Amino acid sequence: MERYNDMPKGLRKWKYPFIFFMALPAMAGFAVWYVMVNINAILMAFADQNTGELSFVNFQRLWGDVASGASEILPALRNTLYFFALGTVVMPVVVYLLAYFFYKKLPGAKVFRVILFVPSIVSGIVIVTLFTNLVSPAGPISWVIYKITGNPLTDYLHRDGSSIWVILFYSFWFGFTGNLLIFMGTFNRLPESVIESAKLDGANAFQELWFVITPMAWSTLSTIVILSLTGIFTASGPILLFTNGAYDTFTISFWIFLRTKDNAMYNYPAAVGLAFTVLGLPIVFLVWKLMNKAHSEVEY
Amino acid sequence: MIQKKFSVGKTVVFVAMAAVCASYILLMLWAFLSSLKGSVEFIGDKVGLPRHWLFSNYAKAWRTLRAGGKGVPTMIFNALWYSCGVIVVSTASTVCFAYVMARFKFPGAKVINVVNIFVMMVPILGSLPSLMRIVLGLGLYDSPLFLLTSVSGMGGGLIIYRTAFRNVPWEFAEAAYIDGAGHFRTFLTVMLPQIVPIIVALSITSLIGVWNDYTTPILFLPSYQNMASGLYVYQIENARTLDTPLLFAGCLMCAAPMLAIFAFGQKYMMEINLSGGLKG
Question: In chain B, what are the domain boundaries?
């Protein structure tokens, strides 16, 4: 780290002006696009859409909607929890195990790695468009099934109850990419000597993964889980492209996205967002705490 | 026995991965073959090879595929200026900030680090309506000036660039100071060039993300649809008369530039990603 005395005397007086100018755009951007946006979001959540008066009217409306069960909020919450389970439990674990097999030189790992990267290169709109056509009753899979059984494929994507599962399946099937490389990067830097000595002590593959590699890679795993969790709360996912929220497929973040896109009544969505942020925060910290408790950090 | 179990595990994973990868390849291949069919032929035959290989569908898509009144050339132009603009604005602001965070001690630096972690960790859900109102209020809605929302200095980029600057020996800067360079010249001509490979790698990753982003143009830039959002709008506007081979041609035209970048740079991108993993 640079120290004040490391620079010539003439430059010392310019240190703080330099820092100021270098930091100014970032700090201004942060002040407007994070601080101001979020303070405004809180104010909007408490402001009556019609009068502008500060009140709890938006939260009362939310409570009424949830209690009556008539609005889209409850199904949206349920679907958000599905994505929560997929994004923070299923995917990180599956991808972590996959990265381990790749690290252990699975045949074809290099080719798989490149192909698995493709869905993150191609826009979601492209993959969803192709996938939707593929699984539609008029699509090629249905055509093959029809030739074999005489019945076309049921339109699971456009049906209450099954639609969200099709979207979850899509998210799983095309979601192996990103964290795979991060896990592999971490595994590649683990000290070989530690893993070798575990092998010499007779550790099997499971013991090697769980007792030797996982403690060393734990901070990566917990960071990925936390960031995935944060993403689930804020990303609206592919629902816009698949169903636009029809067939009971709303999530909380997509519901907010759609309300922001389609009308100028922003205060209620802001209140819904704030309420679920307050509910979500303990979950984030709980997961963080649990992750920290499960394995203590190992220095290597 | 243990070795055998692991071999069984390896076989299962191999078969599963082969199935997943085959499905990706077949999906793209099917889309390509379908994009070469006539629309009537596609309706009658979903899996066969095209009777006539209509490569002209791509020229037709270039000419006739329109979203919100804008054609493909305009959508590509919009995608280019928006992607490049976002990358230049966000990278410039983040790199400058990361340099002083990495190399200068100043009051508040530690607080900024804590705030940065907080910003990355804590999801704030209700900010989208608020962002929309502020963007409307500042006159940035549906305007190229919307790029100003990309001015940032926090998040993962700050951490990566700060680490990169910390890894550059400070002796480089000291030598520049001794040679009479000021702070700005030392930064621009000595320190910044040292991290150009990391800037390029992150910019390519960002380029792919921004090029493929469809929600931002749909929400904030309705008159400036890019290829990704344009394909969505095209499907909405032509829901009843959708020419699927033409749509697939458009989809592949949207995917082609990023696939080309990936094809040429995948080894480099993979290495950057693999070496950039978080320390355990």
Answer: 4-10+16-61, 68-242
ipTM of the complex: 0.87
CATH number of the domain encompassing residue A242: 1.10.3720.10
Give the residue numbers spanning the domain of A280. 73-121+177-294
What per-residue confidence (pLDDT) applies to A59? 94
Interface probe with A: pick from B7, B104, B150, B211, most Cβ of A within 10 Å: B104
Q: What whole-number distance in Å separates Cα of residue A254 and Cα of residue A249?
A: 9
Rounded CA-CA distance A241/A125 in Å is 7
B positions 115-154 inside 8 Å of A (CB): 119-134, 149-154
Specify the CATH class of B68-242 in words: mainly alpha
A111 touching B (Cβ < 8 Å): yes
Q: What percent of chain B has pLDDT over 90?
A: 64
By the 10 Å C-beta count (0-12 exposed, 13-18 middle, 19+ buried), B159 is classed as middle
A54 in any annotated domain: no
